[in-house]
Amino acid sequence: MNKLSLDDIKANRSTDTIPTDSVQRSLASSTDAQQKIEQEQKRDSVNKNQKVGEFLYIKKLTALVASGVSPDQLKPKHLEELGGHFNRRKQIIEEFVDKYLDEDGKIIQVGSEWNEAIGEIMTLITSLQTKVITASRTAAHSRVDSLKSRLVEANELIANYKSSDLAQNERIQDLESMLCTKEELVANLTEDLQIKSEDLESVENDLKGNKVELAGEKKVTEMLSKQIQSQAEDIDVLQAKVEKLQDEKEGALVELNEERNSGALVTQKLEALEKSSVEQGDKYRVDMQGKQSEIESLHQKVSDLNDSQLSLNEKLSQANMSITSLTEQLAGAKGSLESSEGKVEVLQASIADAHVKLGVSEAELGRLRGVEEEMQNLRASNARLALQLEQASAALDVKKSSSS
């Protein structure tokens, strides 16, 4: 029988979805905001460095022209000590010649009022850039703090879900232990059915292996053999039904695996299953006590029958009646098993019912054994049965001789 382990349950079950989407979105937003801040800072730094570099280039070129260097003699190497790419230095020189030198190669003079205005404009631009950058950084930091707060809340939520999941795993372990107990009951039932089948086959083999020489009793013995063979076939059918129930139980376990998200439903089903199993077990024990009393009564009856020295025909007739009763009991067990449902609780109830029916069958088999003991241990080994039949035949011959 396949056993559903805890690892299989954990591997196959559908757990509650932890709402990590919002956490991931928050982390993504936080990352985007941080990247945006870094990009703005990098862009501001590049712009600032670029403006400072241009100012230093212009200052250096202005000093060179003032010292007498002609515009044609200005080369990128003059700005090499200030750094920067060769093409960039070359471009700065071209722009300097176009913007700051007149046609004679002299520096264009700008009035002091223009210098002051330009200074004020540069100051305002710098101040505005500083304010914009500061405001952007403040807003970004505020947003990052908010996202961090949401991240903390999300982590707490994840921790709560993990704690809940741990409790659920413990509950699943308890449920698995209960299911293992039910599987042991099914295994015991299967073993009992096998034993009953073997017992009936043994009875059949004993009857087939002995040839009854008494003509008047031969027909009864053959009928008894056929009936026992029929009971063996019923036992095979019963075994097939039990195997089917085992398959249905495995299907119910799969269904249980699919329904693990609804823990309350699983708990109710297993509690009902456990309650039904306990009730059926109590009923089985009561029935077994009754059957034990019946067996003791049958033993007493056998003793009385031996004392009264019933004839072999009467004993065989009683054996036939006992086998007929056994047939009815097994037919009832067969009908009970065929009416079983695929659910776990119905499966356990059906198994318990079959167990009760098997108890009845066991009692009937015990009765049959008692009858076989009355028939001079006809159901024992082939040698003993043959010997007892010979003794019965001799006794009948004596009776016939005395009667004649």
TrEMBL record:
Keywords, comma-separated and alphabetical: Coiled coil, Plasmid
Coiled-coil regions, chain positions: 144-262, 368-395
Compositional bias per record (Polar residues), positions renumbered to this chain: 14-34
Basic and acidic residues: bias regions: 1-13, 35-45
Region of interest: Disordered: 1-45
Domain of life from the UniProt record: Bacteria
Annotated protein name in UniProt: KfrA N-terminal DNA-binding domain-containing protein
Species annotation: Vibrio breoganii
